[in-house]
Amino acid sequence: MWRTIFSYIPNGMVCMQAAITFIVPFMIFKFFQWIRNAEEE
Q1: How far is it, in rounded angstroms, from Cα 16 to Cα 3?
Q2: How far is CA 21 from each of CA 14, 15, 16, 18, 31, rounded to the nearest angstrom?
Q3: What was the pLDDT predicted at 10?
Q4: Do residues 15 and 9 make contact, with C-beta atoms less than 8 angstroms apart?
Q5: Residue 18 domain-assigned?
Q6: Which residues span the membrane (predicted)?
Q7: Strand (E) positions, the chain?
């Protein structure tokens, strides 16, 4: 099963791009949420 999945992925860059695509907006959201909480205190 894993061999089939890895055969579709040219290299690890695709996984990295996918991770960055999901993580970056999440980090930005958390960062703004943290600023908002800091301002309220």
Answers
A1: 18
A2: 10, 10, 8, 5, 16
A3: 67
A4: yes
A5: yes
A6: 12-35
A7: none
pLDDT digits (tens, 9 = 90+) for 1-41: 667 766 666 666 777 788 888 899 999 999 999 999 998 87
Which tokens is 22 given? 């999901």
Its pTM stands at 0.50
Residue 13 sits at the vertex; the CA angle it makes with 31 and 22, to the nearest 5 degrees, is 30
Measured CA to CA, the distance from residue 29 to residue 34 in angstroms comes to: 9
Quick check: is 6 in a domain? no
In a domain, 36, yes or no: yes
Q: How many domains does the chain fold into? A: 1
* Residue 31 included in any domain: yes
